[in-house]
Amino acid sequence: MMLPAQLLAFTLLVAPSLVSAGMFPKDSLVKMLDHKTFKQAMKKNETSLVAFVAPWCGHCQRMVPEYSKAALGMHPLVPAYAVNCHAEKNKRFCSEQGVQGFPTVKLFPRGDSLPPMLYDAERTSSNFFYFATRRIPKAVTKLYNVNEVPGWVSGNKNKHRALLLTKEKKMPLLWQVLGNKYSHTALAFASHRDKKGKSSIAMGYEAGGPKEPKVLIYPEGADKPMIYQGLHKLDSLTKFFDSVLDGTADLSEAFEKAKAEEFVEDPEEAEILKKQEAQRIALMHGGFTDLIDFEKAMLEGGANYHDSAGYGGMMGGIPEHLKKKDAAAESTVSMASTGMPATTTPPLTQAPEATERPKDEL
Ligand SMILES: *[C@@H]1O[C@H](CO)[C@@H](O)[C@H](O)[C@H]1NC(C)=O
């Protein structure tokens, strides 16, 4: 049985949305764009989905809950947007975008710097999720063996370099997203699977915890890396990389700043995380086949999307030195990190391992 609070969160999630002027329910993570905000969004060089819709169109209305679920699942790594083409101010923009029927959904693999792709699959949440997360342009060099690290480091010496040592089978979606966002900048990305920490040791570091990732930064021209000690989440890493690339910032200052950023719970993000978990709770209670598919999509297509504690897409947990020390804060952090009520103990973070995979992927 679902607890009332879970049920409520869940109902909010899947209830057929009212067709309001905004079309998408208030709590939906789908962000409405117009021709101006579209331009701004595209400047960020992110992979995103954009649905061109009209409020009167039945297929659009039926798509709303599915698209919203996908938006929730992909948050915050792959944004889902919508444009109301019925609005006078957007009509011209929609026709420029070649929209001839509703809904038209397009994937923009890298803002406006790569051509969009037309979404032509069935409009279910898991299809949206697969379609978007699998088409993030591959911009991260995979280093299968630790012996390949020095060659990659010296081969890209004229750039800053960011190397992820991950314990996970699949490259975290977060790292793919960052690699894509920063491709064509003076920052090169690589990833190496350091399953048990042996590579870390070979490189002179500690093995680290079972899921603990390491982000090593080789500043332009340097042979020796510095270790990034901030939070492994999208906004923190973006801020850090921007300041590294900016060039005006003192590099060691950027490292210090990242290291000092404590994990502060953002109530809005915590709420989103709870809803992300609600999809998984629903799965455990054995119903809602569409959610089962979606969960499968998350696990199989999502590059250990929900593997870790913290916010959606975060790699590993919260580094020890960034955890708040007092007990009250500690319990908040651990709630946020599981997103689960304390009474339920679903071992879902283990699901990816439990799923048999034919062979190791990096
Ligand atoms: C987006 O990528 C293009 C090259 O594809 C680059 O010229 C531009 O500066 C990038 N924008 C941002 C905000 O990084």
From TrEMBL:
InterPro entries: Thioredoxin-like_sf, Thioredoxin_domain. Residues 341-353 have a biased composition (Low complexity). One of its GO terms (cellular component) is endoplasmic reticulum lumen. Residues 1-158 form the Thioredoxin domain. One of its GO terms (biological process) is response to endoplasmic reticulum stress. The keyword Signal applies. Residues 1-21 form the signal peptide. SUPFAM superfamilies: Thioredoxin-like. Residues 325-362 are annotated as: Disordered. The keyword Translocase does not apply. Keywords: Signal. PROSITE patterns: THIOREDOXIN_2. One of its GO terms (molecular function) is protein-disulfide reductase activity. PANTHER family: PROTEIN DISULFIDE-ISOMERASE A6. This is Thioredoxin-like protein. It comes from Pholiota conissans.
